[in-house]
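Bench notes, afternoon.
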Amino acid sequence: MDGSSGQILYAFILPEFSTFKDSSIFLNLQRQSKYAPLKPLASVVYPSSKSESTILFPFNPIEGQHLDEPQTYPGIIQVQMLLHGTQATNFLKPVVLLDKNYVVHTYPQRVKELPKLFFFVAEKYPEPVLKGLTVKLDSATNVIFNQRLLLLNRGLFLNLISFCLVYRHSGQSSYGV
């Protein structure tokens, strides 16, 4: 959309378009136009209307051109975009996706640098569970792996709260708990 006139400059028909349960999609501006001659890049992440997969649709937000084929992933539960693009990544901020099997994917697929990331997943049903994962990139093999940090269900959570309360009332320092 043209910011001064409000005129629509281009439009896409996204394949198998649907929204997430909360009627949302993810729009990521991965590279701005200030890094010319590199093309700006934006991506839209949304669930497929025909399957349980998730689709990432990359495009040039200035010219309205497809930059790559739509990427398909298993059902995604979390999406993060890294905050800073570096010269090593051609000033592109990679998107990191966590699927329902807790497998980590990135767009673009080959990422040279990946800081240590954390994902926290809270599930309501069938029993309340909080899961924490850390994601690392092995620079020697360029393989992304994740490691479980914590798994709290209702019983463990109540025991943790009880421990914290007992610790605070025992007269010991309350810092860090």
